[in-house]
Every structure is written in structure tokens, then in C-alpha cells.
Amino acid sequence: MTRVSTVVIGAGQAGLAMSHCLAARGIGHVVLERGRIGERWRSERWDSLRLLTPNWQSRLPGFCYDGPDPDGYMSMPDVVAYLERYAASFGSPVKSGVAVESVARVGEHLVVRTTGGDWSAQSVVIATGHSDTPRVPALAGRVPAGIAQLVPTRYRRADRLADGGVLVVGASSSGLQLAEEIHRSGRPVTIAVGAHTRLPRDYRGRDILWWLDRMGVFDETTDDVYDIAVSRSQPSLQLIGHPDHVTLDLATLHRTGVRVVGRLLDVEGDTAVFDDDLVATTAAADIKLATLLRRVDRFAEAAGIPCQPAPPFQPHCLGFADAETRLDLAAAGVKTVVWATGFRRHYPWLHLPVLDGCGDIRHERGLTDDPGLFVIGLHFLRRRKSAFLDGVGTDARELTDHVASHLARVGAAVA
Fold first, then answer.
1. DSSP labels for 51-107?
2. What's residue 293's pLDDT?
């Protein structure tokens, strides 16, 4: 068994940021990765996907984008290359192809058993990310047997789908983009819409994320919100990282011929049943967007930032008053259902009493009930940007302070 002060599980952006900060503090550690650096960016993303955040917003501890297109959006191979260069820049001790089989406490140490040998550590940082296991509702079992079902992590491109119609369930970032791409392939698409966060790609001549970054929205902490549980449950942003900086939203899909319906409630034989809540759902998104854009306007004025005039606000809710509530899947020729219904975390290898009733890790800003166990990279862990490529660094620096304090308490050697 190999002894080390800290084991980091996962070599994505969160694990690598943590590794950089641990190395800077002289804390001996190893990073265990079941696949390769940035494995999920390699094997669980579709071919055309790009980051939703601009390249300049890819800041990591001691590293930032220095290429020719700071306002562009990295493709998935670009992201992988970026993470590989980052790991190489400070010699991160990544062990690739090593799957964790269990983490358990044995006396004062945490024992991490893996396919590549066992490790004994005084602290463990779980950096396996927020988007772990696709969440598929139970009603998927009622979809007719002749209709294929898949999740976004298994989708690669539209020409690999069966000929015929496609029902996309979920209208956050992934669902919206997949509906648009599949529709462009010539397949008729229906998208079932739940709660969503509508955003324009650009506003007043600048990327909307430039405004949110400049305003400090992404730096808001768990202490800055009224109810952190509610904030953590908010849907992801409706954005697309397109080279032309286009805005993709439900109204755009509707104009191109995508059938937009309410939340999927049930499947009764060959019939999909949808809620009649589409107007209310889109109205709620309209209100949130209008409030945010007004906040941007006030900020721009107060800060004296030169920018284009504010365009007239265009609500979308009124365009969906006649949305269908039932769809005969056979008559519509639906051959595929894509479940873009979010993710859950899954820790079958974590043998410590730190999981809640839903299987998520109980934590307070990344600190768990076990004083040697930490977690990083989850949505709104410490800040709104905690799960972003751009956000893991600040969390990593702060968590490293806690790791160092813990190691000092248990008498571990830190250079």
C-alpha cells in the first residue's frame, strides 16, 4: 500500500486545479483518473459541442487561455488539449487508467482501493464533477419498445440516430442544442420543456457572460443567496457556444419548425402526455431574463461602460398559447427519445457515512462530515461558478487551506 498525504479522485478541471494548489503548498498528493485527463470531455460529449463559456473565461490556477480567439468557444478536443497542457505545465501527478473501487476509513487513515493498487491517505478530495450520471425518469419504462432511448452522454451526431422523428425531453443547454442539431439533420423534432433559464448570447454588443462576470454574479457565494438548496436546483443556462455568437432559444427553435410542448407528464401506450404549463414556464423565464437585463442596464450606466443601446425586450411566452398536450408517437413517426433531463451523482465506491437520502455528498462548501474528506467541482459548491472551468480555481485555493489545516491537525508532513 502506497502512503500519500492527499488523494485527489478525478483529473478533470476540478481535480487538476486542486492538484495545482496542493503542489503550490508543498502537499504530497496523487490524482487518480479512471480514464484519461478530461475523460468526460473526451467520451461523454457530442461531436459538435463547444464550451458555453468564452475562451477567456477558462482561467485556472496559474494558467489561462493565450490563443488567437479569446472570444470564441473551445471544441471538445480543444478542451482536452487545454487540460492536458495545464497538467503538464506543473507536472501534475496524474495516474491514468486507475479506477477507484472503494474509499473507506481505517483508523486515522482513508484507504483508497483502486484497480492500480491501494493508497493510504490522511485526506481525500473527490473531484468527479457535477455531471456524473444522467438522470432518466421512471416513465422511460413506459416508452414503446420500438422507440430507441438515449442520454446526451451517449449521443454523438444526428446521422447515427434512426430515421424518423425525435422527442427531446428537457430544454436546458443540452436539450436545446440537441433539438436544434437533430432538426437540422432533417428529422422532425419535438422538445418537451420544463423550467429553464433563458439568456441571449450577446447583449448590448458584448457576450452575456462578460456582463455577468464583470458584475460579479458568478462570484456570489452560498452566503449571498436566500436559499442555497433552491439556487443549486436552478436549471443550467440556455446558451450555445457557436462561432457566430448566435442566440439559441425556444422561439428560434419554434420558428424553424421544431414542435415545442410542455413538460412530459406520462406515456400512455403510444401517446406522450404533456403538461399545459408551457406559457407559464416560458413566462417565468421571460420575467427572470427581463430582470437580469435590467440589472445589466443599470450596471452599465453606473459604471459608464460604452455599449450598444438596449434592444426592445421580446417575451416568448405569448407564442406558445396553442402548444399541444398529447402526441401520438407512432403517428408522428417518433423513433428516438433523448433524455436531456439532467444529472445525478453516483458514489457506489464511497464507503463513508457522508451521503444523504438522495445519494449526494453532504457538505458545507466542500467540507464533509468526515474531517479528512473534501469535495470540489459540484454546482454552487462555494460560488455560482463552482462547476465552471473558470470557477474551480478559487474553490481549489480555499479548499487547499482546509486540507492543509486538517493535515496539520493530524500531524502529516507538509513541505
1. -SS-GGG--BTTB---SS-TTS--BHHHHHHHHHHHHHHHT--EETT--EEEEEEET
2. 97
d(Cα 401, Cα 394) in Å, to the nearest integer? Answer: 11
CA distance 48 to 128: 24
Write the pLDDT tens digit of every residue in 319-351: 898 999 999 999 999 999 999 999 888 999 999
**Start-to-end C-alpha separation, the chain:** 22
- Using pLDDT thresholds of 50, 70 and 90, give the confidence band for residue 413: low
- DSSP letter at 36 equals S
Cα–Cα dist 400/307, whole Å: 39
Dmax (CA) of the chain? 69
Residue 170 DSSP symbol: -
- The band of 415, judged by pLDDT with boundaries at 50, 70 and 90, is very low
- Grid coordinates representing 247 are 442566440
Question: Residue 192's beta-bridge partner residues?
Answer: 169, 261
**Alpha carbon distance 336, 330 (integer Å):** 11
The x, y and z cell numbers of residue 412, run together, are 502529516
| Residue owning grid cell 457522508 | 354
- Quote the cell numbers at residue 56: 477567456
SS3 111: strand
Backbone phi, then psi, for 293, in 5-degree steps? Answer: -65, -35
- The amino acid occupying position 127 is A
